User: Fold this.
Amino acid sequence: MSALSDKEQIRYSRHLLIKEVGLAGQKKLKSTHIVVVGAGGLGSPALFYLAAAGIGTLTLIDDDKVELSNLQRQILYKVNHMGQAKAQAAAKVISSLNNQIKVNPLCQKLDETNCSELLKGADIILDCSDNFTTRYLVNRYCLARSIPLVSAAAIATQGQVMSFDFRDENSPCYGCVFPQTDEQTALNCDNAGVLSPLLGVMGSMQSLLAINILLGHKAGSEFIQFDGLTLQQQRFSIQKDSECSECNNSLWTRC
Ligand SMILES: [Zn+2]
Assistant:
């Protein structure tokens, strides 16, 4: 594992002081590659914290451009980014926060034909996308390769975050929690709205869960529901569904 430079020891000194990270933990973060799918409302806080925390390599995937309506919640972007590719703009912002990490911006739409290439080398993947097609695709990729996945969603005033530790072959998957149906095109931030800081909570939780998984403070899979009005959260352990079409399809290994 890579040693820390003098500058890194200063930058991460507040991590080095706590026993749950320490020098060994910080080196682990430095040697880790995280892929973040979606640099929007969830991806913004997640990327900020992963970069600040010293994740050594960050790949971010987003094919959108920055629009005025994004600025209500996608805190990576400023007025002068409007019209720019999100992946490029986001990479510049997080590189200016931490110039000691490697950032790979990919301005592409993730699909079945390119997922092997774009998600390659990930130690853990954060699904910060806003649609079910991408969520199932990332789930299948992680499941087939035993890569831990942290997925989240937020609509209106309600947020959800879930982690799947596919290093355990008995782990449930996203499809076990949300079986595919024909009605899943329905709600997203564009048509149902979302309370701005709720994205900050959920995206930050994703980065925290990812770091806890990396540092060995978190094992197994769980589901957290967060209410943006009462600030209450409920945690559920989730079980593998023996009927799950995602878990039971051996074709997914091609992805
Ligand atoms: Zn499943």
